[in-house]
């Protein structure tokens, strides 16, 4: 067995965060589960112990700098060090451009992007001090393939990719590895937190999740395997990898016309 890893996973009380915690737990890892829902975090922490790992749980909101400091204090108190920070917590938005309020944009920006920024700023000094560390930021296929009626979600997830690439370059001299995970739809509960002024989008997105080809457990296994390498862009879905290659290598106008054809509403 590899050396025991110590991790912090945000949004660890459900969905992909829970699956990631249990995946590392099976390797004997020590996992700090953070979530706004303290009871959910406690429950997953118990599951981590049963799966063969060690755990601590912290009720924390990624939009609160004070909560991030509490997470750091708990990690230092229990372990003194940390190997991996997984910024997983996130929410969803949808809606035509005209219907998305600035408040909705600010809400998702504060959680999905600035929540990650706060986490990285909190733990970067510790990683630099100890001479190593790994940051895994969870973005989305939406950060690469920008479907209509998802403006704020697409923009924020694309920003997570850009921020992660910036950190990858900036922190490399400090032996800090940075990667970004871009899953497509998989079976999870993200649609439950969705905000939209057009309720029919919840049902539409829910159908996408229902038809998903991968489970949270399969995505977490792909992330775990990628974390053992020096990969930057982590694309768990085969169709996601295909879409990424097409966007990279097709002439831009051809790609845009292809997307227009694929996303044009049916009459």
UniProtKB/TrEMBL annotation:
A GO molecular-function descriptor: oxidoreductase activity
CDD domains (UniProt xref): SDR_c (cd05233)
Signal peptide: none
UniProt KW keywords: NADP, Oxidoreductase
Keyword DNA damage: no
Alphabetical list of Pfam families matching this protein: adh_short
Family: Belongs to the short-chain dehydrogenases/reductases (SDR) family.
Entry protein name: Short-chain dehydrogenase
Taxonomic source organism: Lacimicrobium alkaliphilum
